């Protein structure tokens, strides 16, 4: 029996730091052997998030 638990939303890893995304929308990644087992939730980062990351790393 699989127990589904509430997962934290992971942040973007930029230049050695975990950084919040500018959006609240997320996607879930599930265990391929058990689609009811959510491995994690990740932000649907936008072009603005990418631009901030590039500036931070430059």
TrEMBL record:
The keyword Oxidoreductase applies. This is Aldehyde dehydrogenase. It comes from the Bacteria. One of its GO terms (molecular function) is oxidoreductase activity. It comes from Halalkalibacter wakoensis JCM 9140. Keywords: Oxidoreductase.
């Amino acid at each position: 029996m699989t127990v589904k638990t509430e997962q934290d939303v992971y942040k973007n890893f930029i230049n050695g730091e975990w950084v919040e995304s500018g959006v609240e929308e997320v996607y879930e990644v599930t265990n391929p052997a058990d689609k009811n087992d959510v491995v994690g939730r990740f932000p649907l980062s936008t072009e603005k998030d990418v631009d901030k990351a590039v500036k931070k790393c430059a």
